[in-house]
Predict the structure.
Amino acid sequence: MTDTVKTIFTPSGRRGEFPVGTAVLDAARSLGVDIDSVCGGRGICGRCQISVGSSPAVPEAPEHLSGWTDTEAGYRGRRSIVAGGRLSCMAELVGDIVIDVPPESQVHRQVVRKRAEVVDIAVDPVVRLHYVELTPATMEGRSSDLHRILDALEQQWELRNVSVSAARLGPMQAVVQSSDDAVTVAVRNGFEMIAVFAGFHDAALGVAFDVGSTTIAGHLCDLSTGAVLASAGRMNPQIRFGEDLMSRVSYVMMNPGGEVELTAAVRAAMDEIVGELIDSAGVARNDVLEVVFVGNPIMHHLVLGIDPTPLGTAPFALATDESVSGEVGELGIQANSGAHFYALPCVAGHVGADTTGAILSESPHTKDPVQLLVDVGTNAEIVLGNKDRLLAASSPTGPAFEGAQISSGQRAAPGAIERVRIDRETLTPRYRIIGVEHWSDEDGFAEAAEKTGITGICGSGIIEVIGELFLCGVIDSNGVIRDPTNSDRVVVDERTMAYRLVDGDSPIMITQNDVRAIQLAKAALYAGVRLLMDRLGVVRVDEIRLAGAFGSHIDTVYATVIGLIPDCDQARVSAAGNAAGTGAIMALLSAEARQEIEDVARRIEKIETAVEPAFQELFVGAMAFPHASDAFPELAKVVDLPEPTPAGERRGRRRRRNQRVTTEGTP
């Protein structure tokens, strides 16, 4: 053996020459190779595991590492040593060698975290754990508990200028006094000491919240690995103050102190969700060191305890559009006493942190194709653009897509119709309900449906039945229900017509008013999209992503058929899932992601649809199915679109319909 050995680290490809006997971890650090360690090279944490690899020039040679140490042989840490693995802090270089650093041992490891397509999230949390051994306290020199920790962080981890708030001194002292001169320190952002644990501690957890107006979802994550340990959700208890956001703002306006009630309700729900997550994962609240949340502007303000009433009237002024941080205790959430929270930035009065979370998740700002990102809700958030330019707006779609204003509408729940198909000749329907896997014309449906009943129709079902009726010719391009085949499914409903979807003592009908409610909602969304397209100077979009729970369940073809979204290659129209929640997880796990979305949010151009003169004209054109003037050539490739109804035929049909109503209404 020579006095020095050549070492290559994969997959980084970094290489160097080191004295025989150099610890692999020390060699890696000198080259800037990414190897994780909480214990600082003491063989306690097990995070620095490596294995021996090979290259064309250097064959695999496990014997070029020093022998198995007593520390490795006696290792009983939470992460067992894998077969063929070594602790890089214990193994020493004794010959030319290739060292393979697996993803699990990298600080900035990549984690697959999303739906069908693969998206890498670099795990780089703002909170990191550092195990230190303290010098014994003496009667001489700077022997305070704080300085002993700060000195150890500097000497053992090269962390300088670390600060600590006065509130942390008491808990820190109690831990140090019972620690036998070894502690694990949680440091936030590389300079703020937020917690101290006795001895070696290897649990750092965080919670990501998506605070919606209807539901609140939480995800418990391991900050070191990026693993989602548990997920939980519940209805937003603020619903008792109003179904939609503006009704809650009205409640605050009419009830002094109402914002305090609303804030207390949502914070209590978030704290209860943390409890559920902790119980489910079998971990401790004291290990929760970071919380991130996203939400629409009104939810964002109420979680933070900010009066939301300015968001109820023009100019819809936010208290702040910047990211917000603070201690978790300020939100009434029980966690480690030093835990902090982070709220993603908002964009405008009706485009909130949920939208920036979705942008972070879908990353249109990094791509060449022009992407349309839509979160359909009572207010639809719309983002359009690519890496060159990004625009955002909110459009008032109303609650029709959530079942409100629909005669048999309801929220998505067991028993609700979620899928509909209609025979083109007989107009006979077939449908599926939530909680039953069979279609209504299949064996086993009736028996399974008895348990839930058929209770109504939810948003995805509403879109499909309207789309099917249009394709069947029962609804014309202007949204008028007619009877093209004299089917007993199309019936007189006072002065208009209706379609009977479900028979029985309590039939489920699709009425003319239902169609009008969907027309108004979809026209508002489409007009908002076209407003952004015109501002961006494009006549078509390259891809469409539908975000949120509703966007994940609607059929994209039917969404295009009714003109909810513009024409696009159907292969490039897809659901984005809970993009806002994914963005919250990304911000929880990555400091770089936080910086990225803060930079992007400042560059987004905000368009206020309420004051745009062109919006009303665009809205009128969008009332038709799928649109009064815009072409849908891509949609025509997958469905047979009916011809637009001529104006003269509309007038004639209206007279015939009135005659029919008069005749059938005569005894």
